[in-house]
Amino acid sequence: MKSLVPDSMASPFGDYSHGVAAGGMIVTSGQLGLAADGTVPDGVTAQAELCFANIHAILAEAGADLSHVLRFTAFVTRRDDMAPYMAVRDRWVRGLKVKPASTLLIVSGFTRPEFLVEVEAMALVPSRSN
């Protein structure tokens, strides 16, 4: 197994990896709208952008990109945030030939009240023959 903890991101909140590559798969921990400097922007759109940027950085640590993602699972705290989240997701996957599977859930909250969205991904490690 390989731990994926990009230097470009804030350190994990605890004793875990932002992502792990093993057995041909990459899984990410849930990514929050947290900038590398520890700031959290206002609004679900800005936070979702950071979530996807962080996922992109984690995938890059394993030599992958969004075209290798099989599935996104996302969580928002308000029904009103579903459409803005989906607009961000759709921008990040716009050019992909095969769109990842996607699940979106509404939850009561996260570890800190300023967090509005969390996104995790499951991807394939790129084949070395490509």
What features would you describe in this structure?
The structure is a single chain. With 130 residues, the protein is an alpha+beta fold. Helix content is 23%, strand content 27%. Strands 1, 2, 3, 4, 5, 6 and 7 form a seven-stranded mixed sheet that branches. A hairpin with a 2-residue loop joins strand 2 and strand 3. Helix 1 packs parallel to helix 2.
Please mark out the parts with pLDDT under 50 across 5 or more consecutive residues, or reply none: none
* Apparent shape: globular
N-C termini distance: 21 Å
**Assembly type:** single chain
Mean pLDDT: 95
- Major beta-sheet overview: 7 strands, mixed
List the total number of helices.
2
Structural class: alpha+beta
Rg, nearest Å: 14 Å
- Along the chain, the helix and strand elements come as EEEEHEHEE
Q: How much strand content do the residues show? A: 25-35%
Helix content: 10-25%
Give the number of DSSP strands: 7
In short, what is this structure?
By secondary structure, the chain is of the alpha+beta class. Helices cover 23% and strands 27% of the residues.
Mind sketching the topology for me?
Elements (H helix, E strand, L loop, with lengths): L1 E3 L14 E4 L2 E4 L2 E2 L11 H18 L7 E8 L5 H12 L7 E6 L10 E8 L6
Parallel strand pairs: 5-6
Antiparallel strand pairs: 1-2, 2-3, 3-7, 4-7, 5-7
Helix pairs in contact: 1-2
Describe the structure using short key phrases.
130 residues; 2 helices; 23% helix; seven-stranded mixed beta sheet; alpha+beta
